[in-house]
Design goal:
about 270 residues, alpha/beta, Rossmann fold, seven-stranded mixed sheet, 10 helices, 12 strands, about 25% strand, globular
Length: about 270
């Protein structure tokens, strides 16, 4: 396994792993002792190799799948998803001795709705923690909306703001490719992202459309998670940066559970100023 091309991750990615691990441990502890819950499930929709290499130290770093498998008390089920066949093979090797793990090969946008979320129904007394950790803007809004309306699934979600700024939120929106607009529509769920990404200002020769701030976009997306996806608790997300200090994505948490929202808010605040 040492010769595989593991992803190299920076400081903030290691922080994200710590955040998810810390909450997963608290979540499993609570759900394992909470009647009448029959099953609590861990879902990793972009599971990757299961292992990373730290850019800071050069050492191996356990990825979110391994962290989840080490949580005690354990989850009842684990679902790891990836598109890449070599990563899937790595995940299968990591979990080969576990009968509670299923590794899925394919696109999470279809697999989650078709195979995984149906195992997490509220009326079946099942609950789930789902990590949506994409490399770019490629999680369909219907995934978030379905999770929220099911009332049984809590999510961590990376909103890839750098991808949006580089490919969609241009200062001249008329020059953005239709393929990029379609991608943003899928991520946002409709075209109302334009209202957040741009604002109209009075100019010398009439109204001028100007690019909005990251904060404006993120506030609007947080509001959508509340009002459209119907998550009750969406703490203020935490910005995750690259080595240059630029924000690459915002880590969101969304839940129907007040206790979960409170725990994650406290975890976010602990790491926010680092």
């Amino acid at each position: 396994m040492g010769k595989l091309p593991f992803d190299q991750i920076g400081y903030w990615s290691e922080i994200k792993l710590d955040i998810v691990r810390e909450y997963a441990s608290a979540y499993s502890t609570i759900l394992a002792k909470q009647p009448p819950i029959r099953r609590h499930v861990y879902i990793d929709a972009f599971a990757g190799w299961g292992v990373h290499i730290s850019k800071t130290t050069g050492d191996f770093v356990a990825g979110s799948p391994i962290n989840a498998l080490n949580v005690r008390p354990p989850f009842c089920e684990y679902h790891f998803i990836d598109l890449d066949d070599k990563r899937v093979a790595s995940l299968q090797e990591i979990s080969v001795e576990r009968t509670d793990v299923r590794v899925h090969h394919g696109d999470c946008n279809s697999l989650l709705l078709r195979e995984v979320f149906p195992r997490c129904k509220y009326e079946d007394y099942s609950r789930a923690l789902c990590l949506l950790d994409p490399y770019s803007l490629n999680v369909d809004w219907r995934i978030l909306e379905t999770a929220g309306r099911m009332r049984s699934i809590e999510i961590f979600y990376n909103f890839m703001i750098m991808d949006a700024n580089m490919n969609v939120f241009w200062r001249n929106p008329g020059k953005v490719k239709q393929s990029q607009i379609a991608r943003m529509n899928a991520v946002w769920g409709d075209e109302t992202w334009r209202e957040a990404a741009y604002r109209r200002e009075k100019g010398l020769f009439g109204d001028v459309e100007e690019k909005g701030s990251n904060e404006r976009v993120i506030a609007a997306f947080r509001k959508r998670l509340h009002e459209v996806a119907e998550f009750k608790y969406v703490p203020n997300p935490i910005p995750m940066k690259n080595t240059s200090g630029a924000v690459v994505y915002y880590l969101f948490f969304a839940s129907q559970n007040e206790k979960g929202g409170k725990i994650v808010s406290e975890i976010f605040e602990k790491y926010r100023g680092r």
